[in-house]
Design brief:
- By secondary structure, this protein is α+β, with helices and mostly antiparallel strands.
- 41% of the residues lie in helices and 12% in strands.
- It has 3 helices and 3 strands; from the N terminus they run αβααββ.
- Strands 1-3-2 form a 3-stranded mixed β-sheet.
- A hairpin with a 2-residue loop joins strand 2 and strand 3.
- Helix 1 runs parallel beside helix 3.
Length: 80
């Protein structure tokens, strides 16, 4: 039995990824935000860290309930 914690993989659960992004970013994820989150390969820790970094960098705009990465925003650093 492994002593390492099991991290749920969200690759096959796009609605869970969208829900996590919406919770952190304040609106349903737009196309650019979803594409950026795909680079996290379904790892919820990475998706959450990415969303938090984008919010911290003020790189998310919410308009009409859609949270979107500002145009031209590069992938932000995931550390504080």
């Amino acid at each position: 039995m492994s002593s390492q914690p099991v991290v749920a993989d969200l690759v096959d659960h796009p609605s869970a990824v969208s829900a996590l992004l919406a919770d952190v970013c304040g609106g349903r994820p737009g196309p650019r935000l979803r594409r950026m989150a795909e680079k996290a390969a379904g790892n919820p820790l990475y998706v959450g860290d990415l969303a938090a970094a984008l919010v911290r960098e003020e790189a998310i705009e919410v308009c009409g309930g859609i949270a979107e990465v500002t145009v031209g925003c590069p992938l932000p650093p995931l550390t504080n």
